[in-house]
Write a structure and sequence with these properties.
By secondary structure, this protein is mainly α. Helix content is about 60%, strand content about 5%. It has one domain. The strands form 2 sheets. A two-stranded antiparallel sheet has the order 1-2.
Length: about 140
């Protein structure tokens, strides 16, 4: 039998990998790792102010847009992870088509930190929050 093939319950060979296979675990672990990295990258836009203690509150307040962008982006990634986690929890097998779809989802998740940065670059606050959620045809103001 060719490497990478799994056996189904009826003994037939397939490119479907059951929950107890290494291949299934690799898909789940890659997904969790990418979600964790994306969530970690979100916080890099927040700088630790190098100011005296009596000016710390003001310096942190100046970063309010970064904190809001972080919270919105984190909520989006966390929601995607929660849905993905629940999906993987009930999934019995993975196959190449599902793995490809999963990779597309992970690619979109990997772009969330970039979208969070775009949120900060746009005119703050109203237009950027609308752009984060609005369909493309509603983003052409100006």
């Amino acid at each position: 039998m060719e490497a990478g093939w799994g056996l189904l319950d009826d003994g037939s060979a397939s490119r479907r990998y059951r929950r107890d296979s290494v291949e299934f675990s690799r898909v789940a672990n890659l997904s969790d790792a990418l979600f964790a990295i994306a969530m970690t990258l979100l916080v890099l836009r927040i700088e630790v102010p190098d100011v005296p203690a009596d000016q710390l509150a003001g310096a942190l307040a100046d970063q309010l847009p970064q904190f809001i962008a972080f919270l919105l982006s984190f909520a989006v990634v966390a929601n995607f992870w929660w849905i993905h986690h629940r999906f993987i929890a009930v999934l019995g097998v993975v196959e190449p088509g599902l793995i490809a779809i999963n990779l597309v989802l992970l690619g979109a998740v990997a772009l969330v930190p970039v979208a969070g940065l775009a949120l900060l670059v746009l005119t703050w606050p109203a237009e950027s929050v609308v752009a984060w959620r609005a369909p493309p045809e509603y983003r052409a103001w100006g």
